[in-house]
Amino acid sequence: MTAAQRRAAARPADDSAPRQATGLLTYLLVGVYFGTVLVKSEAASWYRIQEMFRFQDFHMFGLIGSAVVTGMISMFLLRRFGQTRDGAAIQVSPKETGWKRYVFGGLAFGVGWGLAGVCPGPIFVLLGAGVWPMLIVLASALLGTYAYGVWRGRLPH
Length: 157
What we know:
Structural class: mainly alpha
Order of helices and strands: HHHHHHH
Strand content: under 5%
Distance between the termini: 39 Å
Largest sheet: none
């Protein structure tokens, strides 16, 4: 019996609802914090993004670079110590190789970013800040996600 199975067997069966509520509250608070950081760091600012694309300011490159470093550290830690809250191991599978998926995905992402003026990450943050035209961006993102699901089998992966 593994350590995770022993912990699951030792835990009372009726603790799942409060544990789930605590987890959801944690995710909500982390999301609100992340949204606040995006707004305060101006990562959701159309002007900052335009400055980045025009190479007029280092601000966004610094933010993106710090996000890449944070992601690298997080993936290292997940691969090394990754467990769910119940103790089950998290498996991070390697990405498939091939250039088509990255070229076409990057083009689709870049065109959407250019048309909307923001990447998809801060859509809800901007809605929360009262930028109501982001409803059009959200609807377009959902439509694009649906279209991908429909055409996935015919796309180069």
